[in-house]
Amino acid sequence: MLDRAVSELSKPRQRLPDQRWQIYLQKPEFAQNLAVLTNLSPIVSQLLINRGMETPEQVQAFLDPESLVLPSPLEDFPDLAISLELLQNAIASQTKIAICGDYDADGMTSTALLLRSLRTLGAQVDYAIPSRMHEGYGINKRIVEEFHREGVGLILTVDNGISAFEPVARARELGLAVIITDHHDIPQKLPPANAILNPKLIAESSPYRGVAGVGVAYILAVSLAQQLGQTKGLIQPMLALFTLGTIADLAPLTGVNRRWVKRGLQHLPKSHLPGIQALIQVGGVQARGDEKAGGDKEKLQSPVPSPQSPVPSPKSLKPEDIGFRLGPRINAIGRIGNPQTVIELLTTDDMGVALERAMQCEQINASRQEMCQQIEQEAIAYVEAEFVTSLQRDRVLIVVQPNWHHGVIGIVASRLVERYGVPVFIGTYEDEEHIRGSARSIPEFHVFEALEYCHDLLGKFGGHKAAGGFSLPAENLQVLRSRLIEFANQCLEPQHLKPLLKIDAEVNLNHLNQQLYQQLNALHPCGMDNPDPVFWTPNVQVVEQKIVGKGHIKLTIAQTVDNQEYKIKAIAWRWGDYFRLPPRVDVAYKLRENYFNGNTSIELELIGVRLPIKLQQFFASSPIQSSTTFEYNQRQYTCGFYKNGIEAELRIKNSEGKVLAMQPGHIIGLLGTNRQNAKEVDLSQPQYDNIIQAALQALSVLSAEL
Fold first, then answer.
1. Which pLDDT band, with edges at 50, 70 and 90, does 694 fall under?
2. Cα(361)–Cα(336) distance, rounded to whole angstroms?
3. What's residue 567's pLDDT?
4. By C-alpha distance, which of 662, 641, 659 is closest to 706?
5. In the chain, at which end, N or C, are there fewer CB atoms within 10 A of the end residue's CB?
6. Helix (H) or strand (E) segment spanning residue 544
């Protein structure tokens, strides 16, 4: 028993997420004044202040995006007029149009959107999507030459093409016109297309600046339909596809994205597209809520009209329905399947075909999940063995292994970023001589700039600040590693190398109720650049915890407020590595509704946990062997901090000489008159947790006196 007990306390500290907590500066008086002016609650006002809104006018524009006065896209996109002219001439002359799409959700929804709209407008149009397995991202010379052989006169790229100088130059040599629609970062040399539509080329102040590839396609298609006077029956299907692609691509939900996505989420449940209905059915998504749908009639000076539809349903989807249910089923096809499946799903008018394709998406997504889990485990094992000790020095992680499916390594890269807090470049060998990879980033590191810094070592590459893709000769791997480390050390400081958790406000558990949750609906739809509100509660007790599913922690936490205990259930996704959590922690979380047996309750989705700040301070700064006395349940105790090996240890001694010993972050403590007869005890049990809290309170008084 002694060996086991001493061994337990000599282990390294319990592992917890290694995060940077950044809590917004609270402005209670300002929030109260804004609440009065806008008829909102102070907590919602504080959340809006955190998101950069400080005047009633800014709040009004955010809460009611329909009130935005939109400029004409023709004013903001210099090449939109020539794009419309090229498409109108192609339709009038029945010139073959070919769409070159991409195999992610943004690219596939963009392709489907333009296919449906151009066919409805009378165009002769087909599409091609490059093979992820054999060709990689973007239009290439093979596709261009194949289009030429098929008699295509106009190529329209969607969600790609901005970096494809040589393929576009080849198309122009062959006499083909090219319109590029893309949203990725601008390279140093633009391709010689007839027209380029990219929000990165327009003014930063434009409300269209943040649209994804599907947003550019939507603007082009609706503008064309309006010029041709054929908008009837077109807008609503395109809005559904726009919403699906925008959220799945993690585009910012600001500007026109917020306006159109808010409408789209309200219309998706009753979409007439069989593919959308099939996805919703197979994904098990249920519309909910009582938000009033945005007006169907466009009120402002925009050539992009709103959907013409019957009286809107009060039921609406939420971004997480797409982000976690519908989007992954589409993306899975592009990662490990045939994109044609999704194009057929989103363009068919046959419900039977739609359901067949949706079930294929479901099955392939299940395979994708298993593949991701296996590769993630292998990647973690490799990193722990080879790189974990050098991450603080290198400030970037480059992981390349054979036999990984490059269709899913981007997902694994995101999970490694969450785990290690550094930018991740992950790749796999296509053959002995070539590597293809994906990159994911942290806020302070720009992926596309990093790839440009290494351009002479790479084959194809592209992306934006947060993510990218690349290929390279295998012989360049070590030089690439050195170059990326050099770049990372130029832009990252040691304090950046922890995942950043931005927290809106502190809330006690007694305030977490349905009323607060409903107030937060004013901020929806939430997503990129308008994140879900994140709250934190200090020093809660972990009452129950267990592993469920594939490594999730399900738990109940409690807090005593005004001598009354409040409990609430919580879930921590993929936190199996942190099980068991310490008995006392600070928690950061989002609020979620749970639906079960017809009942709705508020639960927490944990995204951050740390030792209570007082406990951290005590163990870090309290004088070793400082001690004091205190009374608990009418009994006298002595407590203090003592050195045990390399760790500080809290010891609590009663009048009978029995000692309770604990180290920070440990679940298990020792109880006995000496270490020879000490037994292990679970510190999360109330009888131990309560006396520990009383001891810490006494030591805090002593610390203040010192």
1. confident
2. 10
3. 95
4. 641
5. C
6. strand 535-548
Burial class (CB in 10 A: 0-12, 13-18, 19+), 563: exposed
Nearest to 692 by CA among 567, 492, 539: 539
The Cα 161–Cα 163 span in angstroms is 5
R_g of the chain, CA atoms, integer Å: 28
Do the Cβ atoms of 121 and 148 come closer than 8 Å?
no
606 φ/ψ angles, rounded to the nearest 5 degrees: -70, 130
Q: Residue 224: is it exposed, middle or buried by C-beta count within 10 angstroms (0-12/13-18/19+)?
A: buried
Cis status, amide bond into 172, omega within 30 of 0: no
Q: Which of 408, 405, 437 is nearest to 423 (CA)?
A: 437
Q: Round to whole Å and give the CA distance between 414 and 412.
A: 5
Rounded Cα gap, residues 254 and 518, in angstroms: 21
Rounded CA separation 573/548 (Å): 9
Distance CA 304, CA 505 (A): 38
- The whole-angstrom separation of Cα 492 and Cα 368 is 33
Q: Does the bond joining 187 to the residue before it have cis omega, within 30 degrees of 0? A: no
- Mean of the per-residue pLDDT values for the chain? 86
Give the mean pLDDT of 610-632.
70
Buried b (16+ CB within 10 A) or exposed e, 226-262: bbbeebeebbbbbbbbbbbbbbbbbbbbbbbbbbbbb
Q: Which of 465, 375, 385 is nearest to 426 (CA)?
A: 375
Residue keyed to tokens 């203040």 = 704
On the question of pLDDT at 9 being above 60, the answer is no
Say how far apart CA 622 and CA 328 lie, in whole Å.
Answer: 49
Residue 542, SS3?
A: strand
Residue with tokens 């804004």: 34
In order, the DSSP letters of 83-102 are HHHHHHHHHHHT-EEEEE--
Burial of 454 (0-12, 13-18, 19+ CB in 10 A): buried
- Phi, psi (deg, nearest 5) at residue 618: -60, -50
Contacts of residues 700-703 at CB distance under 8 Å and 24 or more positions apart, as own/partner, are: 700/614, 700/618, 701/628, 702/626, 702/628, 703/618, 703/621, 703/622, 703/626
Q: Quick check: pTM over 0.85?
A: no
What is the token pair recorded at 655? 């009048």
Centre a 10 Å sphere on the Cβ of residue 4 and count the other Cβ atoms it contains. Answer: 11
d(CA 199, CA 628): 65
Tens of pLDDT, residue by residue over 55-66, are: 898 898 898 898
For the chain, give the longest Cα–Cα distance: 99
Measure the CA–CA gap between 630 and 650, rounded to whole angstroms: 14
pLDDT-derived band of residue 619, with 50, 70 and 90 as boundaries? low
Give the residue among 576, 563, 558, 579 at the shortest CA–CA distance from 689: 558
Rounded to a whole number of angstroms, the distance between the first and last alpha carbons of the chain is: 38
- How many CA atoms within 13 Å lie on the side-chain side of 417? 24
Of 408, 435, 462, whose CA–CA distance to 160 is shortest?
462
Q: Token pair of 175, please? A: 């006499």
Strand order across the beta sheet in which 124-128 lies: 124-128, 96-100, 152-158, 177-181, 195-197
Rounded distance between C-alpha atoms, residue 567 and residue 205, angstroms: 46
Rounded Cα–Cα distance for residues 509 and 213 (Å): 41
Residue with the two structure tokens 């609650």: 41
Contact 263, 34 (CB under 8 A): no
